Amino acid sequence: MTQQTVVLNNDIVMPIEGLGVFRVDDQEVAAKSVQVAIRSGYRLIDTAAIYQNETGVGQGIKAVLEETDLSREDLFITSKVWNADQGYDATLKAYQESLTKLGLDYLDLYLIHWPVAGKYKDTWRAMEQLYKEGKVRAIGVSNFQIHHLEDLLKDAEVTPVVNQVERHPRLTQEPLKDYCEQHGIRLEAWAPLMVGELLQNETIQGIAKKYGKSTAQIILRWHVQGGVIAIPKSVNEGRIQENGQIVDFELSAEDMAAINALNQDHRTGPDPDTFDF
Asked: Rounded to 5 degrees, what angle do the CA atoms 29, 31, 36 make?
């Protein structure tokens, strides 16, 4: 696997594809998945406090670094502050707890997991403090709609580098993508394969046949070719490896448009505007 990268608005280089570990609550499975991913060429690993697997993720990172010639600086590790830990002081504490569980000295990217009304601005101030102190290389948000970003940017001293949201061909989020691009914020897709629901889609199957690729590879290529970071989740070694093999082909403009046309504004996860925080 050759790792493609993007340059964030603070000039930090971030891999455009990584491994997500949502709902991998077994520490040993999380550790093994991380090891398989890094050994397969992945350099971006995305976790969160609420996933309750930061310890396993950290064990996987440690094992690979001990057994290979890779260094910590070769990896890009993301975690997120959970809703119950939002607010200025609580965020600073939560960050340290995540670091301890991961066994790391710093994070490459720290995100606000959801835009909790009345709290996310204080949370962002804490994130800015961590960033200014050099404790994290970049800060961003997750599940923010345009109006959340507009509100945050009114007072923010640091512009988020990333907005990680649910995105896949049934939920292309084009207005949000356009807004983020206009403000130098990189969109990152969670559930990029729509939790597997699109793997049997006839349009995508037809495109996959043309390129001699799997439907998952076609969808992931659609994301990264559009400049969107993707973090597919899998604990299967073969699928982790397959998902990473998307750099040796390019989708035509026609095929990109055909996939875009599948949009139905359909979510598999919570709507940030109605989510019960």
From this structure: 90
